Amino acid sequence: MVHVVQINMTFLLHSLFDATPRPGLQHIPDTKPLTFEAAVLPPIIYFLALLFLPPPPPRSIDTIAIKLLRNALALLAGILFFRLPLAYYVPQSIGLNYQLALVGLYGGCRVLDAFFISPYGFGHIPRRVRYKHISRAHTPMPVEGDNEPQSQASGKGISVPDAVSNAATHARCGSLADSYFVLEKRLSDLSKMKPVHELATSEEGWPHNFLDRASWALELETSMRGIGFTWTTADVRHTRKTWLPTATNRLHSIFLHVGPVLAVCFAIIRTTYVKYLEEAPSTKYGAHAENLFDSRLPLWLQLLLTAALGAFLMAAFSVAHSMAAILLSPLAPSPLAYFPPLYSTRIWDIKSVRGFWSYGWHRLFARLFLVYGVWPGEWLERKLTGKKNDEPADVGKVLGGFISSAFVHSFAVRSVLGGEWSRALGEAKFFAANGFAVVLEEGIRRQVLTWRKKRDLPLQMWYDSYIGRIWWITVLLFSGRNFARGWVNAGLVREMAGK
Q1: Is 301 domain-assigned?
Q2: Could you tell me the CA-to-CA distances from 455 to 22, 95, 144, 338, 444 in Å, in that order?
Q3: Where is this region: Disordered (predicted)?
Q4: Domain that holds residue 64
Q5: What's residue 337's pLDDT?
Q6: Domain total in the chain
Q7: Cα–Cα distance between 14 and 16 in angstroms, integer?
Q8: pLDDT for position 208
Q9: CA–CA distance from 264 to each of 144, 179, 304, 307 (Å)?
């Protein structure tokens, strides 16, 4: 047994440090395997620069020398972030190369925003935001008496491991199908989130001493959605009437909601690859030599694979978010332990393309798209139409956000398509199509409302929601084929299928 463990550990270490590209990986020519130093230096230098970003006290921060040092560190961090996907690749994984490109581009853009665009362009340095949650009245759904764990009935809390252990013990008593429903029943209380009103208050100043500055810098660097700061993105600000997830609630979501979705999507992705794509001719690097998505998949299977990839990504983001929240929950009440829900509405409640991207999808890159897409788009629309600064520029706002998203995702998939922009345009087409779909549906919605008002008809009809659901699902599936095509040709679907 010990010998087997040693062999497995040796194989694992060899795999981690083996510089041989995995089969199917099409990295950018002339790039080299990622080194430890190249991976850790950008975030470390970014953190050091953030230590000097807040204004004084102490007064020593407010000197020309310190500001030059801060900006020099920020420029170096930004350059190193941007350089990551252009100079390096991860030989062990296609997916990690895709992530490396996202991290490099996002990190570099975030540094430019934090140290140059926001302070010098808008005079803004993010302030901390303190959250306070007040319980609110909520009418729960009826629950059967035997659904409640005994420890709660006696007035005592139940830990996550105990809850899972108790549920699993009862689940083993029946068949596989029965066991799932027993597990669902026994863990049903774990799914209940605490209904609260969320109050957010911005701090008046910035951190003063070194430890507080270090905490401020770490919180800002790790907060993609700006949570805990005045950079907070719209998905967190949609409503103050919300629910507070707990560690047990997130555990329930992973095991009984997200887990089955991942399993079904994995089965679809693997079956599709093995049955239709695996036997296709490949080059010496293991990459397939033809456009497999169009040549080997019928339309119905293209749509099914597109849906499976989209659902898999949503579920994977949810699992990662929930696991991070569970692992960091002991740090509460530190802002590092605060993880508001990643998605702010159920998928079946969405009735438009705009609703999907505003409420149904995560907003992890929202700040990036705001600074580099939405604001430039609004500025361009006002210049072209002569609108004043206080007038809405919704078309530029929408198209700017989606075009910036198109570039970011095309840049990422380019890193696993041999650096060829011409093969990486699928994701750009997907986001551009969705941007125009949002503009189109808003125009149609306004025309329909005007038409109904003139005829004294109800503004909302019973069939509106059905038409809206059919519309947004159709748009995402058919435009999403561009996204899926790039993932198939890049080998990402192959890796997701475990091949």
Answers
A1: no
A2: 64, 54, 49, 49, 17
A3: 140-159
A4: 22-125
A5: 82
A6: 2
A7: 5
A8: 80
A9: 29, 18, 12, 11
- Residue whose structure tokens are 């079946």: 348
Determine, yes or no, domain membership for 322: no
SS3 32: strand
Tell me whether residue 450 is exposed, middle or buried, using C-beta atoms within 10 angstroms of its C-beta: 0 to 12, 13 to 18, 19 or more. Answer: exposed
pLDDT at 403: 97
**How confident is the model at residue 288, as a pLDDT?**
60
Is pTM beyond 0.85 here?
Answer: no
Alpha-carbon distances of 194 from 105, 241, 457, rounded to whole Å = 37, 11, 40
Averaged pLDDT of the chain? 83
63, 91, 125 - which closes a domain: 125
What's the CA gap between 346 and 248, in Å, rounded? 20
In this structure, are strands 241-244 and 194-202 parallel, antiparallel, or unpaired?
A: antiparallel
CA distance 245 to 153: 21
Ranges of the chain whose pLDDT falls below 70: 1-18, 137-193, 234-244, 282-290
pLDDT of residue 174: 43
Is 244 within the bounds of a domain? no
**In terms of C-beta distances under 8 Å and separation of at least 24 residues, what long-range contacts does 146-151 make, across chains too?**
147/185, 147/186, 147/188, 147/189, 148/189, 149/186, 149/189
Q: What is the pLDDT of residue 494?
A: 93
CA gap 463, 477 in Å, rounded = 22
- Starting at the edge strand found earlier in the chain, the sheet holding 194-202 runs 129-135, 194-202, 241-244
Would residue 259 count as lying in a domain?
Answer: no
Kindly state the tokens that stand for 347. 């998928």
* Residue 107 to residue 394: CA distance in whole angstroms: 27
